[in-house]
Write a structure and sequence with these properties.
The protein is an all-alpha fold. The protein has one domain. The chain is elongated.
């Protein structure tokens, strides 16, 4: 792996850690439920991106499958939380 690619991966992961920390702060301090749900969406998206960067770093396709599962479960949980906020119940 080239030095430039390694540096870019380290910089990217550092930026993701910073973004995840700020999203965690919003998750714990959010004034409304909508803010907390958006922070949760951002956290799972950043987690998925971290796995994708790690798959590039370690040249392993297993990380891609884990990122796909995170994206799938994150979408389902976001849809369930949005329905809960709109109607007050998830299953009718």
């Amino acid at each position: 792996m080239s030095t430039l690619l390694f540096g870019a991966i380290v910089f990217t992961l550092a930026c993701y850690v910073l973004a995840m920390g700020l999203a965690l702060l919003r998750l714990f301090r959010g004034p409304s439920a909508q803010d907390r749900i958006l922070a949760m969406d951002l956290i799972y998206t950043i987690g998925m991106l971290v796995l994708l960067v790690l798959s590039i770093r370690y040249r392993n396709a297993m990380y891609f499958e884990a990122a796909l599962l995170i994206a799938l479960f994150g979408f389902v949980s976001s849809a369930a939380m949005a329905k809960f906020l709109l109607r007050g119940e998830v299953i009718e």
